[in-house]
Write a structure and sequence with these properties.
single chain, alpha+beta, three-stranded antiparallel sheet, 9 helices, 9 strands
Length: 265
C-alpha cells in the first residue's frame, strides 16, 4: 500500500516537505513492476505481455528487462520469452523471515507432515496478507491453491486468521472494517463474526477454519512466537470429510511451540 510522504517537523514546529525522491527510485520501482508481472500462472512472458502486465511502455520494458537479464534477475529463453532468474532465488534465500525461519522450522514441519500425511503450511504476515514460506504435501493429498512464495488471505485461511489475530490492533481494525461476506470461510460471514473468531483464536491458541469452495477443506493453525512476538503460523490443511480435528489441534500446537522454543534459543 502506498503511504503519503511524512512531513519533517523542525524545532520551530513549521512543517517542511519530505526530501524529494532520488532519480534512482523510479528505476527501482519500474524494476519491481517488471518482476511483479510474473506469478504462478505467468511464469514465462513474451515482451508484449511483460510490458502490458507491468504497465510499462514496450521500449522501456525491453531496456529494463535486458538490464535485469545482465544481472541475473531475469533469464531469456531461446524463444524470446522472459523468466525469473536464479539470482533472485539466491538473494531471497538470505531473507530471515523466509528461508531463515524455514531452516529452523523444517525438521518440525517434516515431523508434522509424517504424522498427518496432509498439507503442512508455514506462513508469515506481510502487511495485509500472509506469505507462504513452506508447504509440504503428500503426492496423494487433495489439491491446494497456494504455492511457496504465494500470498494467502488473512480472513479465510487458518494461518491467515492466526496471523491476523496476533497482528497490531490497527491492522486488525482495518481488516475488519474492509471485510466483505465472501472474504471469510464457512463460519465467518460478517465483520462481527471475524472479530469474534479472532478473539477465540487468541483465547484458545489455535484457529480452526472450513471452506466448502472450490472443494471442502478444513485447517488447524497455531502461532509461532519469536522473542518479539508472533512471527509465523503453522497449519495442517486436509479434506473436511474425516478431518481429524481432535488429533490435529494438539499436533499443530506442539509443533508451533517446538519451533518457538528453537527460535528463542
Amino acid at each position: 500500500m502506498t503511504r503519503p510522504a511524512e512531513l519533517a517537523v523542525p524545532v520551530s514546529g513549521t512543517p517542511t516537505a519530505a526530501p524529494a525522491a532520488r532519480p534512482g527510485d523510479a528505476v527501482i520501482e519500474r524494476a519491481f513492476a517488471l518482476l511483479g508481472a510474473f506469478d504462478a500462472d505467468h511464469r514465462s512472458l513474451p515482451l508484449a505481455d511483460l510490458a502490458r502486465r507491468s504497465g510499462l511502455p514496450r521500449s522501456s520494458a525491453l531496456r529494463l528487462a535486458r538490464t535485469l537479464v545482465d544481472v541475473g534477475a531475469l533469464e531469456r529463453l531461446t524463444d524470446g520469452r522472459f523468466v525469473v532468474g536464479l539470482r533472485l532465488l539466491e538473494i531471497a534465500s538470505l531473507a530471515p523471515r523466509g528461508h531463515g525461519l524455514r531452516a529452523v522450522a523444517m525438521p518440525y514441519l517434516e515431523d508434522l507432515f509424517h504424522v498427518t500425511r496432509q498439507h503442512v503450511l508455514l506462513a508469515v504476515r506481510d502487511e495485509g496478507e500472509a506469505l507462504l514460506v513452506e508447504r509440504l504435501s503428500a503426492r496423494d493429498a487433495s489439491p491446494v491453491r497456494y504455492r511457496i512464495g504465494g500470498r494467502l488471505p488473512l480472513t479465510s485461511t487458518g494461518v491467515g486468521l492466526v496471523l491476523l489475530a496476533e497482528a497490531p490492533p490497527q491492522v486488525q481494525e482495518d481488516t475488519i472494517a474492509a471485510f466483505l461476506p465472501d472474504d471469510g470461510g464457512d463460519d465467518i460471514h460478517t465483520p462481527a463474526d471475524l472479530r469474534r473468531a479472532l478473539a477465540e483464536i487468541r483465547r484458545g491458541g489455535y484457529a480452526y477454519a472450513r471452506q466448502s469452495s472450490p472443494w471442502p477443506m478444513s485447517t488447524v493453525a497455531a502461532p509461532v512466537r519469536g522473542p518479539s512476538g508472533v512471527v509465523a503460523a503453522v497449519s495442517v490443511v486436509a479434506p473436511s470429510p474425516g478431518f481429524a480435528t481432535s488429533s490435529y489441534i494438539p499436533a499443530v500446537q506442539a509443533v508451533a511451540r517446538a519451533i518457538s522454543r528453537q527460535l528463542a534459543a
